[in-house]
Amino acid sequence: MMKKFLTIILVALVFQEASATRVEIDCPCDITNTSQTALSISAGISNIDSTDSGPLRFRLIAHDTPSFFDSAFFTIGTHQLVNTIPTGSKLSTSEFKTGLAIPLTATFYFTLFLEEMQNGNWVRVDSIRMRDKVMLAKEFASSVDNGLDKGSAFYFDGDPTIEVNGEQVTIDLPAIVNDSASYSSERLVVKILQANGPSVFNFQFFINIVSDHFLKNIY
């Protein structure tokens, strides 16, 4: 089975935004895909303001040009932090997992946003961009960006394996994770597809339905 491998060291071009709370990304920072549908964000946060932060989240975007102001961009993954950051304190470098959404195959720059909830809206308070471009490939696997509070929230925490022995198919499924802070899924169905090309968007047909269940949000 072919896999995507993505490792990003975020080392250059830091952008800081004015905000009600002065919170900053602490690096070294690292972005690594942990499965074909998930990525890990490794970073810390400092609150250098005299007030506690509001709710915070990391959002990783991809864009064509060195500055995301000069081109369209899309969100690859989002992770909302469980706790706010008290005044004058730090969140030490930690790992945060989220789904990996890839809408197309191309080469992109990547920028990590730190966003704070302010007056009902997510506002960028800090950001850092990688130095070089990285190739993303959609053909093999991807989480799905389903919009507000659901964007790339669902992912496999590991890669599924399939073994075919005659007429019997054995599937080993890893944990299925819902990373949304507020959204609980409808009924989930795991299906096996066969396609005549590397992408599931090639001609395909269903082989079997494995199982179905509900998946609640994880905090």
Describe the structure.
There is one protein chain. The two termini are 32 Å apart. The chain folds into two domains: 7-136, Immunoglobulin-like (Sandwich), CATH 2.60.40; 154-213, no CATH class. Helices cover 0% and strands 53% of the residues. A hairpin with a 2-residue loop joins strand 12 (161-165) and strand 13. The chain has strands at residues 7-10, 12-16, 23-35, 38-47, 56-63, 73-80, 90-99, 106-118, 121-129, 134-136, 154-156, 161-165, 168-172, 176-178, 188-195, 204-213. By secondary structure, it is mainly beta. Strands 2, 5, 6, 8, 9 and 10 form a six-stranded antiparallel sheet that branches. Strands 1-3-4-7 form a four-stranded antiparallel sheet, with no helix packed on it. Strands 11-14 form a two-stranded antiparallel ribbon. It has no helices and 16 strands.
